[in-house]
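User: C-alpha coordinates in, sequence out, please.
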Protein backbone atom coordinates (compact mmCIF):
# COMPACT_ATOMS: atom_id res chain seq x y z
CA UNK A 1 0.00 0.00 0.00
CA UNK A 2 1.55 3.30 -1.08
CA UNK A 3 1.65 6.39 1.19
CA UNK A 4 -0.77 8.07 -1.23
CA UNK A 5 -3.24 5.20 -0.90
CA UNK A 6 -3.02 5.30 2.89
CA UNK A 7 -3.82 9.03 2.75
CA UNK A 8 -6.86 8.34 0.54
CA UNK A 9 -8.10 5.70 2.98
CA UNK A 10 -7.75 8.14 5.89
CA UNK A 11 -9.56 10.84 3.93
CA UNK A 12 -12.39 8.37 3.18
CA UNK A 13 -12.87 7.62 6.88
CA UNK A 14 -12.70 11.30 7.80
CA UNK A 15 -15.36 12.05 5.16
CA UNK A 16 -17.71 9.35 6.47
CA UNK A 17 -17.32 10.75 9.99
CA UNK A 18 -17.96 14.27 8.69
CA UNK A 19 -21.04 13.02 6.82
CA UNK A 20 -22.52 11.54 10.00
CA UNK A 21 -21.42 14.52 12.12
CA UNK A 22 -23.17 16.91 9.71
CA UNK A 23 -26.44 14.98 9.99
CA UNK A 24 -26.17 13.77 6.39
CA UNK A 25 -26.36 10.09 7.26
CA UNK A 26 -27.27 7.77 10.12
CA UNK A 27 -25.15 5.07 11.77
CA UNK A 28 -23.34 2.64 9.49
CA UNK A 29 -25.64 3.39 6.53
CA UNK A 30 -24.07 4.99 3.48
CA UNK A 31 -20.80 4.20 1.75
CA UNK A 32 -17.99 5.81 -0.22
CA UNK A 33 -15.74 4.71 -3.08
CA UNK A 34 -12.69 6.29 -4.73
CA UNK A 35 -11.22 5.30 -8.10
CA UNK A 36 -7.69 3.90 -8.22
CA UNK A 37 -5.68 2.66 -11.17
CA UNK A 38 -7.45 -0.52 -12.37
CA UNK A 39 -10.08 -0.48 -9.66
CA UNK A 40 -11.28 1.38 -6.60
CA UNK A 41 -11.35 1.59 -2.82
CA UNK A 42 -14.71 1.19 -1.06
CA UNK A 43 -15.85 1.28 2.56
CA UNK A 44 -16.36 -2.12 4.25
CA UNK A 45 -19.66 -3.60 5.35
CA UNK A 46 -20.89 -3.35 8.92
CA UNK A 47 -18.02 -1.34 10.40
CA UNK A 48 -18.86 1.67 12.57
CA UNK A 49 -17.24 4.75 11.07
CA UNK A 50 -15.98 5.72 14.55
CA UNK A 51 -14.01 2.47 14.70
CA UNK A 52 -13.00 2.13 11.04
CA UNK A 53 -9.26 1.77 10.32
CA UNK A 54 -7.50 2.54 7.01
CA UNK A 55 -6.64 -1.15 6.45
CA UNK A 56 -10.36 -2.04 6.65
CA UNK A 57 -11.13 -0.03 3.52
CA UNK A 58 -11.53 -2.62 0.73
CA UNK A 59 -9.61 -2.60 -2.56
CA UNK A 60 -11.61 -3.97 -5.52
CA UNK A 61 -10.96 -4.38 -9.22
CA UNK A 62 -13.40 -3.99 -12.10
CA UNK A 63 -13.66 -7.77 -12.37
CA UNK A 64 -15.63 -7.55 -9.08
CA UNK A 65 -12.87 -9.16 -7.03
CA UNK A 66 -11.98 -7.81 -3.59
CA UNK A 67 -8.61 -7.97 -1.85
CA UNK A 68 -7.81 -8.29 1.86
CA UNK A 69 -9.65 -9.59 4.92
CA UNK A 70 -12.70 -7.33 4.89
CA UNK A 71 -15.86 -7.52 2.81
CA UNK A 72 -16.95 -4.48 0.84
CA UNK A 73 -20.22 -2.70 1.56
CA UNK A 74 -23.24 -4.72 0.45
CA UNK A 75 -23.92 -1.86 -1.98
CA UNK A 76 -20.59 -2.23 -3.83
CA UNK A 77 -22.33 -3.13 -7.11
CA UNK A 78 -23.57 0.35 -7.87
CA UNK A 79 -20.18 1.84 -6.95
CA UNK A 80 -18.57 -0.50 -9.47
CA UNK A 81 -21.20 0.15 -12.12
CA UNK A 82 -20.94 3.94 -11.76
CA UNK A 83 -17.13 4.06 -11.81
CA UNK A 84 -17.10 1.81 -14.91
CA UNK A 85 -19.75 3.81 -16.76
CA UNK A 86 -18.76 7.31 -15.69
CA UNK A 87 -15.11 8.15 -16.40
CA UNK A 88 -15.93 11.75 -15.41
CA UNK A 89 -16.33 10.62 -11.79
CA UNK A 90 -13.59 9.46 -9.41
CA UNK A 91 -15.66 9.41 -6.24
CA UNK A 92 -19.11 7.95 -5.43
CA UNK A 93 -20.81 8.85 -2.15
CA UNK A 94 -24.10 7.31 -0.98
CA UNK A 95 -26.06 8.28 2.12
CA UNK A 96 -29.46 8.02 3.76
CA UNK A 97 -29.68 11.80 4.32
CA UNK A 98 -33.06 12.55 5.91
CA UNK A 99 -34.73 14.90 3.41
CA UNK A 100 -33.33 13.10 0.37
CA UNK A 101 -34.64 9.82 1.79
CA UNK A 102 -38.05 11.39 2.47
CA UNK A 103 -38.41 12.53 -1.15
CA UNK A 104 -37.01 9.21 -2.39
CA UNK A 105 -39.70 7.44 -0.38
CA UNK A 106 -42.27 9.43 -2.40
CA UNK A 107 -40.32 8.67 -5.65
CA UNK A 108 -40.06 12.41 -6.27
CA UNK A 109 -37.51 14.23 -8.41
CA UNK A 110 -36.04 17.51 -7.13
CA UNK A 111 -37.06 20.34 -9.50
CA UNK A 112 -35.09 23.50 -10.34
CA UNK A 113 -36.34 25.35 -7.28
CA UNK A 114 -32.96 26.98 -6.53
CA UNK A 115 -29.99 27.91 -8.72
CA UNK A 116 -27.76 25.52 -6.75
CA UNK A 117 -29.26 22.63 -8.69
CA UNK A 118 -27.22 23.61 -11.77
CA UNK A 119 -24.08 22.30 -10.07
CA UNK A 120 -25.38 18.79 -9.65
CA UNK A 121 -28.50 18.11 -11.60
CA UNK A 122 -29.02 19.89 -14.93
CA UNK A 123 -32.66 21.06 -14.76
CA UNK A 124 -33.70 18.58 -12.06
CA UNK A 125 -32.36 15.73 -9.99
CA UNK A 126 -34.03 12.43 -10.85
CA UNK A 127 -35.28 9.81 -8.44
CA UNK A 128 -34.45 6.28 -9.59
CA UNK A 129 -36.88 3.41 -9.74
CA UNK A 130 -36.80 1.00 -6.82
CA UNK A 131 -34.78 -2.19 -6.71
CA UNK A 132 -33.49 -4.00 -3.60
CA UNK A 133 -30.10 -2.83 -2.30
CA UNK A 134 -27.04 -4.63 -3.60
CA UNK A 135 -28.72 -5.99 -6.73
CA UNK A 136 -27.63 -5.61 -10.37
CA UNK A 137 -31.14 -4.29 -11.05
CA UNK A 138 -30.49 -1.36 -8.70
CA UNK A 139 -27.30 -0.51 -10.60
CA UNK A 140 -29.32 -0.31 -13.84
CA UNK A 141 -31.85 2.05 -12.22
CA UNK A 142 -29.07 4.20 -10.75
CA UNK A 143 -27.21 4.61 -14.04
CA UNK A 144 -30.44 5.68 -15.76
CA UNK A 145 -31.19 8.26 -13.06
CA UNK A 146 -27.62 9.62 -13.13
CA UNK A 147 -27.51 10.14 -16.90
CA UNK A 148 -26.04 13.64 -17.57
CA UNK A 149 -26.08 14.33 -13.83
CA UNK A 150 -23.85 14.15 -10.77
CA UNK A 151 -26.58 13.23 -8.31
CA UNK A 152 -29.75 11.18 -8.04
CA UNK A 153 -32.20 10.13 -5.40
CA UNK A 154 -32.41 6.39 -4.89
CA UNK A 155 -36.05 5.25 -4.95
CA UNK A 156 -37.34 4.38 -1.46
CA UNK A 157 -33.76 4.45 -0.19
CA UNK A 158 -31.46 7.54 -0.17
CA UNK A 159 -29.15 9.57 -2.39
CA UNK A 160 -26.00 9.12 -4.53
CA UNK A 161 -23.59 11.89 -5.57
CA UNK A 162 -20.56 11.74 -7.87
CA UNK A 163 -17.50 13.95 -8.14
CA UNK A 164 -13.90 14.26 -9.22
CA UNK A 165 -12.53 14.68 -5.67
CA UNK A 166 -13.67 13.64 -2.21
CA UNK A 167 -14.20 17.23 -0.93
CA UNK A 168 -16.17 18.24 -4.04
CA UNK A 169 -18.35 15.14 -3.79
CA UNK A 170 -19.07 15.80 -0.13
CA UNK A 171 -20.05 19.36 -1.07
CA UNK A 172 -22.49 17.93 -3.67
CA UNK A 173 -24.12 15.83 -0.95
CA UNK A 174 -24.57 18.91 1.22
CA UNK A 175 -26.12 20.80 -1.71
CA UNK A 176 -28.54 18.03 -2.67
CA UNK A 177 -29.72 17.60 0.93
CA UNK A 178 -30.14 21.41 1.12
CA UNK A 179 -32.32 21.31 -2.01
CA UNK A 180 -34.36 18.40 -0.67
CA UNK A 181 -34.85 20.22 2.65
CA UNK A 182 -35.83 23.42 0.84
CA UNK A 183 -38.38 21.59 -1.33
CA UNK A 184 -39.92 20.04 1.75
CA UNK A 185 -40.14 23.37 3.60
CA UNK A 186 -41.62 25.14 0.54
CA UNK A 187 -44.47 22.66 0.51
CA UNK A 188 -44.87 22.89 4.27
CA UNK A 189 -45.09 26.71 4.08
CA UNK A 190 -47.67 26.52 1.31
CA UNK A 191 -49.77 24.10 3.31
CA UNK A 192 -49.64 26.41 6.36
CA UNK A 193 -50.57 29.46 4.27
CA UNK A 194 -53.45 27.66 2.62
CA UNK A 195 -54.78 26.45 5.94
CA UNK A 196 -55.43 30.16 6.83
CA UNK A 197 -56.82 31.11 3.41
CA UNK A 198 -60.51 31.15 2.50
CA UNK A 199 -61.96 28.26 0.49
CA UNK A 200 -61.62 30.14 -2.83
CA UNK A 201 -57.97 30.93 -2.28
CA UNK A 202 -57.04 27.59 -0.87
CA UNK A 203 -54.94 25.46 -3.14
CA UNK A 204 -53.40 22.11 -2.53
CA UNK A 205 -49.81 22.90 -1.52
CA UNK A 206 -48.46 19.45 -2.08
CA UNK A 207 -44.94 18.55 -3.07
CA UNK A 208 -46.29 17.23 -6.34
CA UNK A 209 -47.93 20.61 -7.14
CA UNK A 210 -44.66 22.38 -6.45
CA UNK A 211 -42.82 20.00 -8.73
CA UNK A 212 -45.35 20.61 -11.52
CA UNK A 213 -45.01 24.39 -11.10
CA UNK A 214 -41.22 24.23 -11.16
CA UNK A 215 -41.27 22.23 -14.39
CA UNK A 216 -42.74 25.28 -16.12
CA UNK A 217 -39.62 27.31 -15.26
CA UNK A 218 -37.14 27.37 -18.19
CA UNK A 219 -34.57 24.63 -17.82
CA UNK A 220 -31.24 25.50 -16.29
CA UNK A 221 -28.02 24.47 -17.98
CA UNK A 222 -24.63 23.89 -16.49
CA UNK A 223 -22.09 26.49 -17.56
CA UNK A 224 -18.94 24.54 -16.62
ZN1 LIG B 1 -28.09 2.59 1.33
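Assistant: Sequence out:
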Amino acid sequence: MTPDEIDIRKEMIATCLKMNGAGLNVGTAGNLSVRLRGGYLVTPTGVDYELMQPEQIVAMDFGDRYYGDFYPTSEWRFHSAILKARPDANVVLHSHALYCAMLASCRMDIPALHYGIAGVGDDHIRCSGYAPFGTPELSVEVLKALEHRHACLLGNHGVIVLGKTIPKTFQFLQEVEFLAHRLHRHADARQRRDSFAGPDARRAGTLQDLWQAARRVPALRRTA
